[in-house]
């Protein structure tokens, strides 16, 4: 096909314009968008990461996950005073095996596989009683965190159901602190500070406070 002079001018002029545009686009520097600053890490205080070992008088209490027992050691000498398997052995499928000493001096341990708390005699390790909510704990093993309060109340953090709650001594639900905890129990922290229970969920970046008298 033969082009006229005019058509040739338009054709080659168009190619030249496209070339110039291509060079301009190729050499143009892309705009850089400023990224938002990263959020600071949400880390509980050291008291939550490394809670103090429960102690009553001359006895210090701990759990042995491998043996699935609760132990009492003499504070001064470190000697083993007693070792307990609870009422009918502790079932501990995972990492959680929490223990707590109430302000009344009651020693409570979570038998998470049986979904209940067990009270032991602090002086002998003898099983005294068990406690569980009126509506049983859900999930495979709960509660993974708990605090025993004066008068028989309990604060719990539960995996699976992802709940943080306050229970009355009867087992009735008194208050829901959270119904949307994160999936992993390893994000949960619970510790005491004076007259306050602190609950943390690191993944949710959440922190709750519960006064012993529940006025919070």
Task: Give the strand line-up of the largest sheet.
Answer: 1-2-3-4
> What's the CATH first level?
Mainly Beta
The beta-strand count equals 15
**What structural class do helix, strand and pairing data support?**
mainly beta
Poorly predicted ranges (pLDDT <50, ≥5 residues)?
none
**Termini distance?**
90 Å
Number of helices: 2
In sequence order, what are the helices and strands, one letter per element? Answer: HHEEEEEEEEEEEEEEE
Largest sheet: 4 strands, antiparallel
**Rg for CA atoms:** 31 Å
Q: Can you tell me the CATH superfamily? A: YVTN repeat-like/Quinoprotein amine dehydrogenase
**Overall mean pLDDT score?**
87
Q: What count of structural domains?
A: 1
What percent of the residues sit in helical stretches (DSSP H or I)? Answer: 10-25%
Describe this entry's structure for a reader.
This protein has helices at residues 5-27, 46-49, and strands at residues 55-56, 59-64, 69-74, 80-84, 99-101, 107-111, 116-120, 127-131, 145-148, 154-158, 163-167, 173-178, 188-193, 196-201, 206-211. It is mostly beta strands. Strand 5 and strand 6 form a beta hairpin.
TL;DR of this structure?
The protein has 216 residues and is mainly beta.
Summarize the topology.
Elements: H1 5-27, H2 46-49, E1 55-56, E2 59-64, E3 69-74, E4 80-84, E5 99-101, E6 107-111, E7 116-120, E8 127-131, E9 145-148, E10 154-158, E11 163-167, E12 173-178, E13 188-193, E14 196-201, E15 206-211
Antiparallel strand pairs: 1-2, 2-3, 3-4, 5-6, 6-7, 7-8, 9-10, 10-11, 11-12, 13-14, 14-15
């Amino acid at each position: 096909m033969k082009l006229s002079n005019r058509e040739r001018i338009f054709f080659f002029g168009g190619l030249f314009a496209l070339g110039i545009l291509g060079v301009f686009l190729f050499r143009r520097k892309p705009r850089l968008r400023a990224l938002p600053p990263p959020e600071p890490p949400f880390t509980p205080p050291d008291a939550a990461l490394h809670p103090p070992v429960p102690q009553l008088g001359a006895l210090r209490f701990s759990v042995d996950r491998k043996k699935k027992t609760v132990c009492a050691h003499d504070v001064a000498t470190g000697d083993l005073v007693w070792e307990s398997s609870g009422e009918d052995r502790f079932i501990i499928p995972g990492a959680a095996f929490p223990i707590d000493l109430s302000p009344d001096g009651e020693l409570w341990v979570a038998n998470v596989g049986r979904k209940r708390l067990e009270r032991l005699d602090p002086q002998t390790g003898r099983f005294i009683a068990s406690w569980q909510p009126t509506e049983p704990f859900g999930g495979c093993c709960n509660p993974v965190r708990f605090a025993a309060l004066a008068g028989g109340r309990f604060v719990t953090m539960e995996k699976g159901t992802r709940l943080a709650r306050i229970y009355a001594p009867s087992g009735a639900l008194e208050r829901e602190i959270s119904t949307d905890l994160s999936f992993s129990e390893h994000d949960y922290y619970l510790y005491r500070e004076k007259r306050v229970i602190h609950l943390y969920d690191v993944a949710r970046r959440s922190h709750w406070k519960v006064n012993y008298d529940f006025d919070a």
